[in-house]
Design goal:
The complex is a heterodimer of chains A (266) and B (193).
Chain A: E1 2-8, E2 11-16, E3 22-27, H1 30-40, E4 50-52, E5 55-56, H2 61-66, E6 67-71, H3 82-93, H4 99-108, E7 115-117, E8 123-125, H5 127-139, E9 144-148, H6 157-169, E10 174-177, H7 181-184, E11 190-194, E12 200-203, E13 210-214, E14 223-226, E15 231-234, H8 239-247, E16 252-255, H9 260-263
Parallel strand pairs in A: 3-10, 3-11, 6-9, 9-10
Antiparallel strand pairs in A: 1-2, 1-4, 4-5, 7-8, 11-12, 13-15, 13-16, 14-15
Helix pairs in contact in A: 4-5, 5-6
Chain B: H1 3-27, H2 30-57, H3 59-63, H4 68-100, H5 106-109, H6 112-134, H7 141-156, H8 162-186
Helix pairs in contact in B: 1-4, 2-4, 2-6, 4-6, 6-8
Amino acid sequence: MKIQKLQLQNFNINIDIKNNEIIGIIGRNKIIVEEFLLTIAGINKSKDNCFFEDVDIYDNSYYFSKRIYLNCIHDNVGTLKAEKIVDAIATVYHKDVEKDVLNDHIKNLSIHGECEITLAYEYKFTKAGNTLINMALALSIDDNLIINNPTIHITKKADVDYLKVNLKNHSGFKILGIDNLLGLVDILDRLIVFTDYDEGIIIEPEKTELYLVEDCLDIKPYRLFKGYSNRVITIDIPKDILKKCDRNRIKYTKVNINEIEKHISN
Amino acid sequence: MKLKNIYLIRGSGVLIAILAIFTAVVLNSGAFNVIQLQRMYLLVGIFACGFGYSEIADHMKLGFGITRFSIFRNFTIVVLFVDGVMFLISILFIAFTKMANPAISILYFFDYRLIIYFSLMIYFLGQFGMLLGNIKIPEYLKPILLLIIIIILAAFIKVNNKFLINSLLILFSVGLSIINYLLIKNIKIEIKL
């Protein structure tokens, strides 16, 4: 999948997404993250900027048949009966859900414990249960995945780890609107960051070092997020700039990428 | 469920509908049947409107691989099919009325211009519902707009110049279809957090 000069508000994004890659999207502005996901899902229109197999993706039936888009905040599933889910998805959306895989996910994630069945045989999921059943469904469909908030409301580390393993093993590209960077960062191949400074930056979590620096003019091109007490989080700063910071007695420390959320100001 | 049983159920459904129409016709006078027809068409029109609205506003469909264009195309085909069924029902009404009261003049009862108007009304309301699903206006305005449109459509029935109102309705229906097509080619989902 190719994204060329995609302009969303003041952000500009260029990226080629390879098969099997896992891409994370983060940004303080959740609207821009969702807007980006809807655009690369072909649901919102771009100006001829997004292509799948060299064809524009907007409302493209071939691309739609190869991907699913889910926001785990929404209650898309109303039952735990795999047979019913498989039938409904096949009838209404013409998608094949692997019933055995879905049953396995429901069992392994203990989703039964996250829902209650009312007297009218309606399944009411807890918030975590809703995320889990959405993810179980997504992971049972053999398509490219575009998922917003894949671990939202999930508190058990074992559940997050299970989802991580299965996301990693799932075929096709996976694009995730990150709600829990700390939990998911180790499976991400690349991270698209919508910075607080109207820039869309792509980083490789494994190779990139981040800094927490007192804000100054020299580090302007490297800024990602505003931190507390006039400090900012930046991407790799070249050595000569760091020396300049030393000379000007500007304090900086290295931070791990999974600590970003801790240092970002509210 | 076996395929044979499905056809049996559908077949008996159609038979029950025909019997219901026959009973309705026999129980009412010929003049009242026209009013019944009007109400039935209006009811189907309102249903088509709600169906169009819910179809295009269903974002889960988009997420799971149904394109807006296929929603629009399938919806238009379904509404045209319903129009055809309603036309057949009208014919049944007329036939049963003639059977129940052979003295009644078919020309008095069967105003083909009105039947065309009703059929166009279903299509128009369906497209209007889809337009309401496509446009970004405050939610409370949508039922108000629909109510105004229904009042205008109901008032048009009294207009003597049926050629004029039919032409207008064709114009608006085609116009709405084009607007809906253009909208789905450029629409953006409004994001609410």
